[in-house]
Amino acid sequence: MDILDSLMDEKRVYSRHQSGRLELDEMEEFVNILTKSEYSSDVLWVSRYLQFTKSFIASDRKAQSHREIIQDVLNSDLMKAIEELELEANTTDLAHLHDGVRKILAEIGYTRSLATIRWLALVVVKIIHKTLDGIYVNEASLMKLKESMGDSPYVLVPTHRSYGDFILMAFVCFVYEIEIPCVAAGLDFLSMWVMGEVLRKTKAFFIRRTFQDDKLYKLIFGQYVSSLVSQGDSPIEFFIEGTRSRTGKSLKPKYGFLSMILKPFLDGEVPDIKLIPVSISYDRFLEEWLFARELLGTPKPKESTKGLLKVFSILNQSYGNVYFNFGNPISMRDWITREVGSPLTRPITQDVKSIASLIISNHSKLQVLGAFHLVAVIMYDNVVTHNACEMPIPIVTSRLKLVVSAMRTLGLNVLLTKGDLLKEIRYACAINPELMVVEGERLKFLGKNQQSLPPALKPQVTAGVETGKDLDPNKIVLLVVYSNPVAMVLFSPALLLAVIATKESAVIPEFNFLCELFEHEFPIGSCDKENNFKISEEFLLEMDCVFRTPDGMKYAQSSNYQLINILNAIIRPYLAGYLLISQYLAQVTDSTTHKKLLVECQNYLMIQPDSCALSPIYCSKTFIAYCLSSLTQVGCMNKQMSCDVPGVTYSINRKRTSYTTSLLSSLLSQQRTESALKHKL
Amino acid sequence: MTTPKSGEEKQEEYEARLEQRLLGAAKLQGVIPKKRSEIVKWNGWGYNDSKFIVKPGPMVAFTGNRYPIGEMDLPGFTEWVIHTFDIDISRTNPSVPLPPPEAYPKPNIPEEFVEEVEKTGMSFSLEGEDRLMRCHGQTLHDIYTLRFDLEKSIPRIPDIVVWPGKLFSRVTNQLVSFKDCMSSQIKMSDFDITIELSDDDDDLETEETIRVIWVHTMKMHHPSVYVNQPLEKVFEEMSKMYNIPREFVDIRYNDEPVSPSDSLESLGFRVALDTLYASKALQAAPSASESISEPGKNKLHVKCLVKDRNRPLNYYLNPRQNLIALFEALAKELEVPSSQLKVKFDGDLVSAKDTPQSLDLDGGECFDDSAPILPVKIYFEFSYLHNGPEDELDGPETHDHVVKLVELADKLGLVIIPYGGGTSVSGAVTCPDNELRPINQIFWLDRKNLLICCQCGLVGQDLERYLQSRGFTVGHEPDSYEFSTVGGWVATRASGMKKNVYGNIEDLLVSAKMVTPRGVLHKKGLSPRQSVGPDFNHVVLGSEGTLGVVTEVVLKIRPVAEVRKYGSLVFPTFSDGVNCMREIAKQRCQPASIRLMDNEQFRFGQSLKPPGGYLGSLSEAFKKAYLSNVKRFDLNMMCVATLLFEGTKKSVEQQEAKIYEIVKQFDGFPGGEKNGERGYMLTFVIAYIRDIGLEFNVVAESFETSVPWARTLNLCRNVKYVIGKECIKHNVKKFFISHRVTQTYDSGCCVYFYFAFNWEGQDDPIGTYESIEAAARDEILVNGGSLSHHHGVGKLRARWYRSQVSELGETLFRHAKHVLDPNNVFGAANLLDDNVLHTKAKL
């Protein structure tokens, strides 16, 4: 403890600079842009003279407007090839084809209206002032980015946690006078009354959620993206996770759009493409209750303006801070060797995969954590490890110090703005008063079912989720969601720790196997396994969780049990959930379809007597679906195309499944004995 | 010995001269003398009197009156330079002075070589300065080293400079000892030989030096004989020299055998024009032949089965007697030339040199009459005895001297570097290496067929002056044509500015003679096109001095165009310009030359305008206002194309009309004749800029490529980007990168890049430059560009050669090299990378 205290003092965490800056080692660059404005009124501010920095200025031609980009698609070689194919198919009516293409392009294409941008900025700034305490931006790296812009297309690749992401990104660009990025938005936004068109005018272009069936659409959309990258001068923004992550951690990246973006580079049309990983971290998500419900099985409501207004209506509460952290541009030149040649160049899948995975791991490194997330982790550990919903403040404080130092060891940004840990804890509770509260000398988790909720947000009773201990599954899920940003970075060390605790030697293959097994839940480190191992190992050594012996790593029983508990708590639901599912699979005899398997697994999980406080997490369909994909990936199940049953069927690889089961159960039982031991201590 | 000329002889001589005149032969006094440094710079580009200088002010000016901007102050350029490179114009970085004669290393050349060279009458020089002048081309590395790092250059100078041929003719052959070359401690010396051709000396009447070529090796001999003397002496000389019995020496004149009793007179031998061809005869002269039709003691009975004949022919041979007699007898019997016979024994081809013993026919048991019948099968097959080069094109001394030199070098293990104008920018003539610069003589001019035959040392501008005074032109005008030579053009695959009308060198070249250590490669005939297998002109073209020396060249010529007119075009952006060029190329209506400069180069060109020059500052301002306000052009994006029309008045008008019509579609418009003319003038001046740049810590260089149309813009953009990034990487703060499209083809174009930077703060500016250019070249190749459009590969680009021609292609070239030059006499080390490694490492 003393050691930790002195460690914390050395790092001088708490002092605050007067002008919104923090006097804190790596935090210094973060600036609250809400306190930055030199204008007396917001109206004056949004109508100021703007000189946007463009992303790609080719010196040999004029930049293309949005109309010209559409024209460029129509004049492209691809379009000619499509026409030729149509003619070969004896379609004499090219006008029909052209109409179709124009319609598609009209649906996709962005437009730009500076007036709309200014109006939206005004609305957004008003709402932000009401709901957010601050928007912290890593100004130094953003300014560096802005300065380097102009030489090649820049693609912003932010994390996606909220609807707020693209509006806030546009807002940040507006503040720093960077050309508003063209953002790829889901087509469902277009159905929102007024908002769809507003988004379009503020440079959103729309992408259908699925276009596997429509070949023409796929081609035209790809060409549009190509033209946008090679002919346009705006930055481009897309969400590599494909959709909002409801869980607070990164999703497995999608590769389709990334491949489209890269095509102009492979064709040599642009000298380079720079991908900028951006982490947008929220203290509290605007859509937290929706997320919780979705995770528990309620389908996602259709995006509608009404829904959005509803979101705004609840915005009169404080949502804490939002943190923008811009990473270093990833130059495609360093990653892809080009061989300009064939007309249908596609990036090599492996290249795209490793780039995507690099971005995801950058996302997790770039995260900015507020006190709220750290406190959530501590409470989560408390609930899972000690089955308690309350804890004394001094314990919270000491654990908070521990988590902060753990995060710093991993190189993460922890932004503490209040100057005092107690204040930080209070502030964390204030951000989400329905989740946690400080009562007297105790921090309380308001997860008991009797806790009253505002009637509008009262969760609908979701189909038969066992809650154990009378805890509100919604609250549990929220607690998990808010602790997940931390879980993201601690997951690999936690896995390694579990492996070291059970195994004497040869930890690396098992560790890699487990990383792959949980890749769908924690898609980090899969691009660079060795490095992932090294970092996790160093972290555990640094934090005194393990020690080095001549034979390898040894588990350190007595040291730093608080952190060990937290690490164990983080992986527990995943180990338990995956174990249950693979145990169930071991019983399955016939080959079966995905859908059937999913339902059966869910039913099986719900009737498990083992269901603990955490069961809401692993009873969700997403969890099971991820688990099944992962098990397929590691070979516990084999995909088959069969003639009698339509679609894909699965058969079980018993040998592999039993290996997985035994590995998971050994890890889990080791953990149980551990935690029992801790309790006694 | 001296007898007065008879009237008849005088008549003959007159006729010979008349014939020369009819042929159009001429020996030209070239612009560039043997002592190159009298006229051209030893450490930079071009003429000594033409250069940029900085006058107090500071003010940059151009000296000399060879170019239109000569003797003018250039304030715009001064400003441009200071702004672009941020240089302190008051601080110069002067070149080191020319070293004194004693500073050069002693030539390391075998005495035998010098003796032989002296004997043949070639001129040579061992002087350091002459040798230094020829140890480099015009790459940045060469010039930089000469100016600032001369100690590095000096050890690498050739040992001797030789000028084959007689007066006025210069072949510069730089020779290095082969061993030295390989150990990378290259020592070279210059060997300069001048021979006074004592033209009408009476003494020559009686004793003549004649040319005899030993056809097996294409070696040239120069025996002296009296005109009336029997040629017995020549026969003896040959037999001694090649160590064969005199009876086996076969000498032919006009394809007729010459008897030893013939004399030059009796043959009607024209000393100036004709050559004798000597070879080893297939059979001894009749006197030496032994009867083989009669059996005799110890003789073997050889039975010859002849295809299509029923009866075998019987002969009797001595075991140690070679089969020549047999061949001869067979030839006689079958009535075919012995050279066309093919004799086989046991399925293997038998050569005339074989003896029954060597063929294992003796066996010991068969020495009597009842010897077993030896089945020797004989059948006919056409085989053609190679008779050496056609004599109608066989040039005078130069060619022979080159042959001699190459032979000598081959024998003594020396390296020859043919040297032309020394304008190479591929590192091709940088020692160790080879370009070719023989004499500047014109052999004949064929007005009817529009051909000219000249020696390869002829400098471009001399050739054009000669031709244009007679109403013709070759029309090949590379930017270096003031200094580069015909042979150099061929050896590097040069491209001329006006190729749209006249073609590139490969289109212009009809025939070339290349002397290699294994003989002369020479295509027969001057027909316009031949389908005779692969065209070996293409082995010569682009060989970059690695295979042999080009000595004589036949080129196409054209009548001089009636009208020559300049023009220019203005485009709002470079991509509009490129698209327009593409359309013009598509419609195949390119004028003689069309070039498109990018915005940077356009502004650079503007800066070189002398104040109040052609337009005056008032009209300049007006023009600018017109462009930006009326035409809505962005002055930081617009670009300019320059045009050169050639043809009849009418055709030029038509061309202009068509071009200006096309230009409209691309938002361009004509920019006036003056701008076009200035553009072409700048082409020649631009090469001088590097020298002054070096004085102010600015390195500048150009490199080029050819690229398909669809990739042109991408390539330009990406290469500029890469250079920008590389500059940042190398901490280069002030740089200039610009490009232009200089040639258009149906499917693509040639792009030229100009790159310069201020080397302030760089430890090794040349290393930096080379690393940046290499990155740019990689990018060019990735973007579908070629390794070179016309600069060639040399040593600078050798590392990419294999990837461009495929591994098999490289192997093919290696083997060709091995066949033509097994001892690596032409050790220029161009094209093939492995030869260049050690030198490159030193750079």
From TrEMBL, chain A:
UniProtKB keywords: Acyltransferase, Membrane, Transferase
Subcellular location: Endomembrane system
Signal peptide: none
Pfam families, alphabetized: Acyltransferase, GPAT_C
GO CC, alphabetical: endomembrane system; mitochondrial membrane; peroxisomal membrane
Family: Belongs to the GPAT/DAPAT family.
InterPro entries tied to this protein: GPAT/DHAPAT (IPR022284), GPAT/DHAPAT_C (IPR045520), GPAT/DHAPAT_LPLAT (IPR041728), Plipid/glycerol_acylTrfase (IPR002123)
GO BP terms, alphabetized: ether lipid biosynthetic process; fatty acid metabolic process; phospholipid biosynthetic process; triglyceride biosynthetic process
Name used for this protein in its record: Phospholipid/glycerol acyltransferase domain-containing protein
Domain Phospholipid/glycerol acyltransferase, residue spans: 154-283
GO MF annotations in UniProt: glycerol-3-phosphate O-acyltransferase activity; glycerone-phosphate O-acyltransferase activity
Domain of life: Eukaryota
Source species: Apolygus lucorum (Small green plant bug)
Record's bilayer topology term: Peripheral membrane protein
Primary residence: membrane
Automatic annotation (TrEMBL), chain B:
SUPFAM superfamilies, sorted: FAD-binding/transporter-associated domain-like (SSF56176), FAD-linked oxidases, C-terminal domain (SSF55103), Ubiquitin-like (SSF54236)
Gene3D superfamilies: 3.30.160.650, 3.30.300.330, 3.30.465.10, 3.30.70.3450, Phosphatidylinositol 3-kinase Catalytic Subunit, Chain A, domain 1, Uridine Diphospho-n-acetylenolpyruvylglucosamine Reductase, domain 2, Vanillyl-alcohol Oxidase, Chain A, domain 4
Residues engaged in binding substrate: 690
Cofactor(s) needed by this chain: FAD
Record site: Important for enzyme activity: 595
Residue ranges of every copy of the FAD-binding PCMH-type domain listed in the record: 385-560
General function of this protein: Catalyzes the exchange of an acyl for a long-chain alkyl group and the formation of the ether bond in the biosynthesis of ether phospholipids.
Record protein name field: Alkylglycerone-phosphate synthase
Biological classification of the source: Eukaryota, Metazoa, Ecdysozoa, Arthropoda, Hexapoda
